[in-house]
């Protein structure tokens, strides 16, 4: 189970030099209190895979846009992590255009977790 975010202070003994340290979980979007945190993390993982594939091919943004069937500013938005306007299905199509199979697996959640999750896994060897 995820640890809840908790603020702690580590001081150096000089009041103004104190630095805040935060304990966080596995999902930065959940730590920020986003209600759609699981989906945002899954999208971010898919986009990371797309970016890696584009970089591995040495494609400029304009060439990547042509391959993906989108405008160059959309590729720029992907590279900057601006996920609004990109559905999971659209990201799957981009991965297909880059020669990747997309497999969706639905399985029961383990009893050790209170809630079911949405996750994306992009294999490191994807090319």
List keywords for this structure.
127 residues; mainly alpha; 434 Repressor (Amino-terminal Domain); two-stranded antiparallel sheet; 5 helices; 2 strands; globular
Description of the molecule:
This protein is mostly helical. The protein folds into two domains: 34 residues, no CATH class; 87 residues, lambda repressor-like DNA-binding domains (434 Repressor (Amino-terminal Domain), Orthogonal Bundle), CATH 1.10.260.40. 39% of the residues lie in helices and 8% in strands. It contains five helices and two strands, in the order E-E-H-H-H-H-H. Strands 1-2 form a two-stranded antiparallel ribbon. Helix 2 runs parallel beside helix 5 and helix 3 crosses helix 4. The longest helix is centred in the middle third of the chain and has 20 residues. It is globular and about 45 Å long.
Briefly say what this structure is.
This protein has 127 residues and is mainly alpha-helical. Helix content is 39%, strand content 8%. It folds into 2 domains: 1-34, no CATH class; 36-122, Orthogonal Bundle (434 Repressor (Amino-terminal Domain)).
User: Sheet bearing the most strands, described?
Assistant: 2 strands, antiparallel
Helix and strand run: EEHHHHH
Number of strand elements: 2
Q: Any idea what the CATH architecture of the largest domain is?
A: Orthogonal Bundle
Q: CATH superfamily of the largest domain, called what?
A: lambda repressor-like DNA-binding domains
What does the radius of gyration come to?
A: 19 Å
How many structural domains can be distinguished in the coordinates?
A: 2
| Percent range for β-strand residues | 5-15%
In terms of structural class, how would the helical and strand content be classed? mainly alpha
């Amino acid at each position: 189970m995820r640890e809840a975010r908790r603020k702690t202070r580590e001081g150096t003994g000089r009041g103004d030099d104190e630095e805040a340290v935060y304990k966080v979980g596995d999902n930065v979007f959940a730590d920020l209190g986003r209600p759609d945190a699981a989906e945002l993390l899954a999208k971010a993982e898919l986009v990371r895979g797309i970016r890696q594939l584009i970089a591995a091919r040495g494609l400029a943004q304009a060439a990547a846009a042509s391959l993906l069937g989108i405008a160059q500013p959309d590729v720029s938005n992907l590279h900057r992590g601006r996920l609004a306007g990109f559905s999971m299905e659209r990201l799957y199509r981009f991965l297909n255009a880059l020669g990747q199979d997309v497999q969706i697996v639905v399985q029961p959640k383990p009893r050790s977790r209170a809630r079911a999750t949405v996750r994306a896994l992009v294999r490191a060897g994807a090319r």
